[in-house]
Amino acid sequence: MRQDAALLSLHDTPGNPVPPGATVMAVGTSDDCTLRAARWSATTRTCKGTVCLLQGRAEFIEKYYETIRDLRVRGFAVVAFDWRGQGSSDRRVDDPHKGHVATFDDYRRDLLAIRDAVLVPFMPDPHVCLAHSMGGCVALTGALDGWLPFRRIVTVAPMLSIKMVRSPAFASGATRLLQRLGLGSRY
Question: Residue 36: in which H helix or E strand, if any?
Answer without folding.
Answer: strand 34-40
